[in-house]
Structure to design on (728 residues):
């Protein structure tokens, strides 16, 4: 008899075991049982052949319609036409005439291969196949197949779906009683089968309801383990000891608030209180602050940093790009005024020193800042990855603020936290709205604050599509509109996916390098490029306007100068790549034209257009696209034009991403413990699992009374420790 830990070769033999390991990394019975079917074919119901797409790897159930053998180019060609009753598909075999005796008209079988197109007809060349036993000989059928429902597995060339099915049969037939890690009260509550029956019912269902319930139970398992892991992780944070960072006399905070030219929104007030409470705890804050671009996150974060400085500590703000770090620096210096000038002649009695640390500083300048951080003279430092480098140490780092979390890995975040003596408080800011289920899973160990309203006085951005294929003259009108906007004294961004189109095909390495500079480079096709478009406009459609370019291949000095010139109105039109995507804030910019809009993701477009309409002038965004009407791409762009609801757009974005992207790439990997769970589809299950997990941990925080459950959680922890929490 086999247990879950039994090596697979003891059940299926050495040769098959070797193929299982090579194809899917499967080495144990447990791993094989967790190789779940993609779907089920129903015996007697043939696969709809008309739905097959070219290039898909398919496994279909079909009936042989006719067979013919001919000779061409010195080869025997056996052509077998299979049918689902209406559509046909042809299978071809070269020099395998002997197969004719098996492949008789009328027989039904499973056929697997890659759909190709030959002379306009779809076909499978050299498919693998397994004929279903003839007639009503049910016993023979059952001997070879599970039953009426034939599971279709992820397969490999060496291991077609039905071979997996046969292995599964061997395993389930020899499976001993297996212990179930799921607490009985939970299986009872949801009327779930026990683990062994869940495995049997997902692989050899008697009916589809059985399969569905088994799938649900196994999916729930994954959600529950994940929630237990996150719950424990939270508990570990709470156990950490850190300094209380509530100032006795919040002088800086008070002086800052007196300087603020506006009142906090209600949302900001609420978040300020949440953060204040967090900072008063003995364990470090772990908070995610989400809010649309312009919702006032930076102001909230700055207030938190000042509290920490008031209590004698230091705060660091980590930004993903140099442009953004520089901008934060400028914004913060402006908001603080003389409060940021401690130690200089401009400084007043109250104040701190604020520094910018980026990679492009000279090493002398860096050293100077390093010294001020180590001595504690500098209260607030803003920077890029340079903050994480070896030379940096802090006198007393109390708070780490990370801006635009999706660009940072957990490792980088942690590297900065390692520079603190006690675990520092952590505030992560993101402008990408995070749907609820993603918040509960991917960010489940963070508390979440949301700024929903934008500070008053803003008019919403209008977004329109310019389909250049159908209406090329719309583009001329767009440039006309740019001129009008500038005539009104406003400024305009034009965003293009490329810096320059190369005159040769790029290598993979070069493409990667370009992507790192913020260019869209999925392929070698030419696209609108900043360095080509800008001169073209400056001498053509936008003649007479001040046009400048901004992109990742410029030196940071150049970028900084351009941004500063744009910010104070010297530049009217800025042609840029997505370097301007994050956080850039010029209230006088009222219009954006995005070229080749189909090259950008939904959330990215939403982020980009958030750059305009930040002042009191209405914002306008034009999406220029050569996508065809009626395509999915066009639908996507229409969705962006139709709504300003970031949560809705994040959802659309998520739906279009491939499986596995959300919970980390490890999800699609061979041995992942998260195989079935999908954050969007399984919202209800995740919700239930969260409630159950919290209830379990409430009575038994360490799970000491549930050793099997704990063992499963630990397996997940081991496997996911590096991979899935890392959302950058
Ligand atoms: P975010 O970081 O979320 O993009 P910011 O904190 O940079 O938003 O704020 C965007 C703009 O709105 C800034 O110019 C900021 O000074 C301003 N702002 C922030 N809070 C308020 C408020 N309560 N009332 C008016 N303006 C505000
Ligand atoms: Mg910001």
């Amino acid at each position: 008899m086999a247990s879950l830990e039994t090596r697979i070769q003891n059940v299926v033999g050495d040769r098959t075991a070797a193929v299982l390991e090579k194809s899917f990394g499967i080495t144990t019975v447990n791993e094989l049982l967790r190789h779940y079917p993609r779907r089920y074919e129903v015996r007697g119901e043939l696969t709809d052949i008309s739905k097959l797409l070219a290039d898909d790897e398919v496994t279909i159930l079909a009936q042989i319609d006719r067979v013919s053998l001919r000779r061409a180019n010195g080869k025997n060609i056996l052509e077998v036409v299979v049918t689902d009753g209406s559509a046909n598909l042809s299978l071809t075999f070269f020099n395998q005439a002997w197969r004719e005796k098996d492949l008789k008209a009328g027989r039904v079988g499973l056929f697997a291969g890659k759909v190709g197109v030959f002379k306009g007809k779809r076909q499978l060349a050299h498919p693998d196949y397994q004929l279903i036993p003839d007639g009503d000989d049910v016993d023979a059928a059952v001997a070879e197949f599970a039953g009426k429902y034939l599971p279709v597995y992820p397969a490999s060339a060496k291991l077609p779906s039905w071979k997996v099915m046969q292995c599964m049969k061997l395993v389930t037939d020899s499976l001993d009683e297996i212990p179930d890690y799921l607490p009985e009260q939970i299986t009872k509550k949801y009327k779930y089968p026990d683990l062994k029956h869940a495995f049997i019912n997902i692989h050899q269902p008697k009916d589809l309801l059985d399969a569905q319930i088994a799938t649900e139970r196994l999916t729930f398992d994954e959600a529950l383990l994940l929630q237990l892991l996150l719950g424990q992780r939270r508990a570990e944070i709470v156990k950490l000891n850190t300094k209380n960072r509530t100032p006795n006399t919040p002088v800086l905070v008070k002086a800052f608030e007196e300087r603020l030219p506006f009142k906090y929104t209600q949302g900001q007030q609420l978040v300020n209180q949440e953060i204040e409470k967090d900072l008063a705890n003995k364990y470090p804050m772990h908070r995610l602050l989400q809010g649309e671009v312009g919702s006032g996150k930076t102001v909230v974060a700055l207030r938190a940093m000042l509290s920490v400085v008031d209590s004698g500590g230091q705060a660091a703000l980590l930004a993903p790009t140099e442009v953004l770090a520089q901008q934060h620096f400028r914004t913060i210096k402006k908001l603080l005024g003389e409060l940021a000038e401690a130690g200089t002649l401009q400084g007043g009695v109250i104040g701190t020193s604020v520094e910018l640390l980026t990679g492009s500083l000279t090493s002398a300048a860096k050293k100077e800042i390093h010294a001020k951080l180590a001595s504690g003279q500098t209260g607030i430092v803003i920077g890029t990855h340079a903050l994480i480098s070896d030379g940096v140490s802090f006198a007393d780092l109390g708070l780490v603020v990370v801006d635009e979390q999706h660009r940072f890995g957990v490792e980088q975040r942690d590297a900065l936290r390692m520079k603190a003596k006690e675990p520092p408080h952590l505030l992560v800011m993101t402008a990408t709205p995070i749907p609820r289920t993603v918040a509960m899973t991917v960010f489940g160990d963070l508390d979440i604050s949301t700024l929903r309203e934008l500070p008053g006085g803003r008019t919403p951005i209008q977004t329109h599509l310019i389909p250049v294929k159908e209406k090329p003259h719309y583009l001329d009108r767009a440039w006309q509109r740019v001129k009008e906007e500038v005539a009104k004294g406003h400024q305009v961004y034009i965003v293009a996916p490329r810096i320059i189109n190369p005159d040769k095909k790029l290598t993979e390495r070069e493409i990667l390098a370009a992507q790192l500079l913020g260019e869209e480079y999925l392929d070698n096709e030419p696209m609108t490029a900043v360095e080509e478009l800008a001169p073209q406009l400056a001498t053509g459609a936008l003649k007479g306007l001040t046009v400048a370019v901004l992109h990742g291949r410029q030196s940071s000095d150049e970028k900084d100068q351009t941004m500063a010139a744009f910010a104070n109105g010297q530049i009217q039109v800025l042609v840029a790549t997505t370097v301007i995507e994050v956080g850039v804030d010029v209230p006088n910019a009222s219009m954006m034209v995005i070229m080749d809009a189909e090259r950008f993701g939904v959330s990215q477009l939403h982020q980009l257009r958030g750059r305009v309409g930040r002042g009191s002038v209405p914002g306008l965004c034009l999406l220029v696209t050569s996508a065809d009407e009626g395509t999915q791409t066009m639908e996507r762009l229409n969705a962006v034009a139709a709504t300003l609801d970031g949560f809705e757009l994040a959802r659309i974005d998520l739906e279009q991403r491939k499986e596995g992207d959300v919970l980390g790439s490890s999800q699609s990997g061979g041995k992942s413990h998260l195989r079935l769970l999908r954050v969007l589809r399984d919202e209800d299950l995740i919700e239930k699992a969260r409630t159950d997990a919290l209830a379990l941990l409430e009575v038994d925080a360490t799970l000491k009374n549930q050793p099997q459950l704990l063992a499963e959680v630990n397996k997940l922890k081991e496997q996911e420790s590096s991979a899935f929490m890392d959302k950058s």
Q: What stands out?
A: The first strand starts at residue 39 and ends at 42. Residues 262-265, 268, 291, 293-299, 455, 585 surround adenosine-5'-diphosphate (ligand 1) (CB under 6 Å). The first helix runs from residue 9 to 12. The chain is about 40% helix and 20% strand.
